[in-house]
């Protein structure tokens, strides 16, 4: 009986530890994104396909049909939805970036329109 109680206690502690590790890692990812500027986040997550200049003139961007952000007429709200949820071959970033990080990226992307 005592060994069953010890086993249950150990299993519970391991489960709690794994859960806390997951939550800490998720929180750290969002905290890093929230502290980064829109330009930093764009460079890390978007430039591979959309290019440093936003023109999507990269090999990966051409393969995936990435949007040329300098010619995009989407609204800020639409852009935030796309960054959050993804679109076609583009992944969503709701689990990777904080709300603030997503808005910062959108603000950075709007700067491509005037170039």
Stretches where pLDDT is under 50 for at least 5 consecutive residues are 9-34
* Oligomeric state of this protein: single chain
Sequence of secondary-structure elements: HHHHHH
Question: Could you tell me the mean pLDDT?
Answer: 79
Principal-axes shape call: globular
Question: What CATH architecture would you give?
Answer: Orthogonal Bundle
Q: For this structure, what is the CATH homologous superfamily?
A: Cytochrome c-like domain
Reported for the largest beta sheet, the result is: none
| Helical proportion, percent range | 55-70%
How many beta-strand elements?
A: 0
| Strand residue percentage | under 5%
Q: What is the highest CATH level, the class?
A: Mainly Alpha
- The helix-and-strand class reads mainly alpha
**How many individual helices?**
6
What is the first-to-last residue Cα distance?
73 Å
* Cα radius of gyration in angstroms: 20 Å
Q: What can you see in these coordinates?
A:
With 115 residues, this protein is mainly alpha-helical. The protein is globular. The model is unreliable at 9-34 (pLDDT under 50). Helix content is 64%, strand content 0%.
């Amino acid at each position: 009986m005592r060994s069953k109680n010890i086993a249950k206690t150990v299993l519970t502690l391991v489960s709690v530890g794994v859960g806390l590790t997951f939550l800490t890692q998720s929180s750290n990812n969002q905290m890093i994104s929230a502290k980064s500027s829109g330009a930093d986040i764009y460079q890390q997550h978007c430039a591979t396909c959309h290019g440093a200049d936003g023109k999507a003139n990269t090999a990966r961007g051409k393969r995936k049909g990435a949007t040329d952000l300098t010619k995009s007429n989407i609204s800020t709200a639409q852009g935030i939805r796309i960054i959050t949820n993804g679109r076609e071959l583009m992944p969503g970033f709701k689990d990777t970036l904080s709300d603030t990080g997503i808005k910062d990226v959108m603000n950075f992307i709007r700067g491509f329109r005037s170039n």
